[in-house]
Amino acid sequence: MPSFDEVLKEAGEFGRFQKRVFFLLSQTGITFSSLFASVVFLGRAPDSFWCRIPGAAELSERCGWTLEEERNFTVLPLQLGNESASGECQRLDVTWDTSASCASPLARSGNGSVGSPPLAPCHGNWAYEQPHSSIVSEYDLVCGNAWMLDLSQAILNLGFLAGAFILGYAADRYGRILIYLLSCLGVGICGIIVAFSPNFTVFLIFRFLQGMFGKGTWMTCYVIVTEIVGSDQRIVGIVIQIFFTLGIIILPGIAYLIPTWQGIQLAISLPNFLFLLYYWVVPESPRWLLTRKKGDKALKIMRSIAKHNGKFLSPHYSEITISNEEVSNPSFLDLVRTPQMRRNTLILMYAWFTSALIYQGLVMRLGIIGGNLYLDFFISGAVELPAAFLIIVTIDRIGRRLPFAASNIVASVACLITAFLPEDIPWLKTTVATLGRLSITIAFEVVYLVNSELYPTTLRNFGVSLCSSLCDLGGIIAPFLLFRLAAIWLELPLIIFSILAAVCGLLVLLLPETKGISLPETLEDVEQLPSHFGKCGKKRKHRDTNSYI
Q1: pLDDT tens digits, residue range 307-366?
Q2: What is the pTM of this model?
Q3: Which CATH number fits the domain that encloses residue 235?
Q4: In a domain? residue 6
Q5: HSE-up (13 A, CA, CB side) for residue 400
Q6: Range of the domain at 347
Q7: 513 and 422, same structural domain?
Q8: Cα separation of 429 and 423, whole Å?
Q9: Which reaction does it catalyse (predicted)?
């Protein structure tokens, strides 16, 4: 009775069939990364807005004013009395006299004087030159409501977190391709509802659901790809990240061509409906079918894979076995039961949290630093492309630990230098910031691989799922940390990022090196990893990576 890996080797570990499925499913990375970073363009600060005086809309309509004329009557008198006032979050504490002349609309103030009327805070009565350009102007997320923009991104990441657990469990129970297709349908439907939300509450509810389904698409496509290739082809887990970067690069082009946030939202959501066509070209994971005791279906798919790859499976095969089955009901205690496992788990959780927080913080920072947002975002995305190639070149030559630590340290130094560089040398500031973005991208992608290599087979899926959930927690915190600290000092978030990355760089040096050794099968193997690396120096062939992100 052959094992699954033996049958896969005979059918072709990365032949024409796997390459086709890999390419098709990798497109999911483009739509997922667009959703991930979309807040930069959906939540753009409006170019110009001001607080309307009560009665302004009626008088403006009667007098036939343009928005510019209304602003002149509203803001200029305010600035004459207080030069520091912008008219955005405060207004004159007066009302329009709707019966007055259109040339002199201001009524007498409540204290009886017309010289310097008092000021009043603005509450939900703003006017925008471009009212539908972003969710900020659509739902009045300005002044005292500005924190709600942070909330919108935190809600999306909360959806990612929920999707990792809910849809991750569903994919294990009901099948990879079924959950993938349902997730694609959910992303598309929720994306449309988000675009036409009548209020901010509805927007948040369906943005959460879109995040949940979006994580389902990314997670299951990653799993399917890694489960249909041979154990020596774990590099696909790194290469698939390139398509995530392509989505980051394409997003500013979409935002540049489409002037409204609803159009951008639809452009990144509707392509998910096209993925439903994969029902006819992407089969269920044969590895999953074997774990569900559906060997006949798995063997049928393996024969189809062999046929597409120009191979031939022996007709005597009637059943396939699968090794490395997981223990049932693993718990967090299993991940911290022994000293080495405890150290690995805590460091990896911190690494996931830090990488996600810094990466997402640097992405969103582009929306608040000024300059050409579209060009800056494109350049920062393009610089991520070399990350995957650098990882591919280095991890099998010098190992995982040094690139992992070095990328965090370089990101830390780059963030710190960027914070203190003067604004009058923008090219240098941009160059150093770009280096930081590249470095944290490398760290983010390496943690995917290292996490799966430091857990035993019986706990690998659960361990990776639990540790990577800290990624979404970092994403929830990132917008609040960035926007609230930037309000104090624009560069203050970079100081925090620098500290977090430096600590991470030092901590990952405590992890064992896994280059050239086989994946641990048991807790005892994990405890012996330092001896494999340091004392014995044995190098054994990798057998399995089965990373379930």
Answers
A1: 999 888 877 776 776 554 444 566 778 788 888 888 999 999 999 999 999 998 898 887
A2: 0.83
A3: 1.20.1250.20
A4: yes
A5: 22
A6: 330-531
A7: yes
A8: 7
A9: (R)-adrenaline(out) = (R)-adrenaline(in); spermidine(in) = spermidine(out); tyramine(in) = tyramine(out); (R)-noradrenaline(out) = (R)-noradrenaline(in)
Residue 91 lies inside a defined structural domain of this protein:
no
pLDDT band at 533 (very low <50, low <70, confident <90, very high): very low
Q: 3-class DSSP state for residue 327?
A: coil
Amino acid at 56: A
Domain count of the chain? 2
H or E stretch including 51? strand 49-51
Q: What is the dihedral of CA 102, 108, 113, 116, to 10 degrees?
A: -60
Interval 360-394: pLDDT, tens: 889 888 777 767 889 888 988 888 888 888 888 88
Rounded to 10 degrees, the C-alpha dihedral 202/465/286/270 comes to 20
Q: Domain check: are 277 and 233 in the same one? A: yes
Same domain, 272 and 337: no
Triad 210, 246, 35: Cα angle to 5°:
15
Residue type for position 99: S
Which candidate, 179, 149, 181, 185, places its Cα nearest to that of 164? 179
Residue 253 identity (one-letter amino acid): G
Q: How far apart are CA 123 and CA 140, in angstroms?
A: 10
DSSP codes of every residue in 177-236: HHHHHHHHHHHHHHHHHHHT-SSHHHHHHHHHHHHHHHHHHHHHHHHHHHHSS-GGGTTH
Q: Which residues pair with 121 in a beta bridge?
A: 90
Q: 39: number of CA atoms within 13 Å, CB side?
A: 28
Same domain, 517 and 414: yes
**Whether residue 193 sits in one domain with residue 341:** no
Distance CA 472, CA 157 (A): 6
Q: Which residue type, as a one-letter code, is found at position 397?
A: R
Say if residue 213 is in the same domain as residue 260.
Answer: yes
Separation between Cα atoms, residue 518 and residue 533, nearest integer Å? 11
CA–CA separation, 238 and 374 (whole Å): 27
Place of tokens 């349908």: 185
Both structure tokens of 232? 């020596």
Distance from C-alpha of 2 to C-alpha of 8, rounded to nearest angstrom? 10
Among 56, 69, 124, smallest CA distance to 96 is for 56
> What is the residue type of 70?
E
Gyration radius of the chain's alpha carbons: 27
Residues 219, 307 within the same domain: yes
In SS3 terms, 388-408 reads as HHHHHHHCCCCCCHHHHHHHH
Does residue 7 fall inside a structural domain?
yes
Q: Does residue 264 lie within any of the structural domains?
A: yes
Distance of alpha carbon 89 from alpha carbon 137, whole angstroms: 14
